[in-house]
Amino acid sequence: MLHYLSTQLTSLQRYNLLSGSLIPRPIAWVTSQAPNGSGPVNLAPFSYFSTMPSDIPLLTLAIGRRLDGRPKDTAQNILTSEEAVIHLVDQAHLTQMNQTAATLPANQSELSLADFKTQPSRSVSVPSLIGPKVRFETTLYQTVPVQNHEDQIVTDLFILEVTDFYFAEEVLDQKTMHVNATALDPVGRLAGPTYTGLGDLTTLIRPK
After folding, report:
1. Which residues form the Flavin reductase like domain (predicted)?
2. Residue 90 carries which DSSP code?
């Protein structure tokens, strides 16, 4: 096997190896806003996103900082408003999602990039998108400022608590409370500009 010490690699090479190996990754399509609606609604996708085992419904979202050390708009909004809405990306919204990855001035909303429609949320003040099959209203549970070896904050790691769950009727079996992955038709992030669909499914019963 090919072997590399981390110290032999540049930061970009390390990033490429990790992001290209940990695939596919689910995509959090996040709406956020400054407190009291004082700024535009921000909409952006992030693939360093997961959940964690807990009796509390928690999601994790890691957002890298800008080169000058400032938080990105989504991170700044979550830090100050302590809330966000996370939508899962399905195949029908892949192109729209990609549009919102553009870098815009802080005073311009990504909602202006396409025909996005929003609706009021129930438990948080930031609005939700109309269209995605699954979304979670969340509040900030914990923030972990991740520092590099020079003690500079390089990533904001957010642990978010889900307050409200929303599922399109065709996605959720209300009797079993199981999500139909095929109906969800999720998009996964690979490396660079490459994405993937659900692909082949395999069912295996765990041994006792």
Report:
1. 20-177
2. B
Angle at 138 between CA 154 and CA 126, to 5 degrees: 95
The answer to whether the beta carbons of residues 83 and 75 sit under 8 Å apart is: no
**Cα 58 → chain centroid:** 13
The count of C-alpha atoms lying within 13 angstroms of the C-alpha of 99, restricted to the half-sphere facing its C-beta, is 12
Helix, strand, coil percentages (3-state) for the chain, rounded to 5, are 20, 35, 45
Digit-coded pLDDT (tens) for 166-189: 999 999 999 999 999 999 999 999
The domain that contains 141 carries what CATH number?
2.30.110.10
Tokens of residue 202, six digits = 């395999």
Let me know: does 33 contact 81? Beta carbons within 8 Å. yes
| Closest to 147 (Cα-Cα) out of 157, 159, 158, 160 | 157
Domain that holds residue 33: 6-196
**What is the total count of domains within the chain?**
1
Q: Phi/psi of residue 2, each to 5°?
A: -75, 135
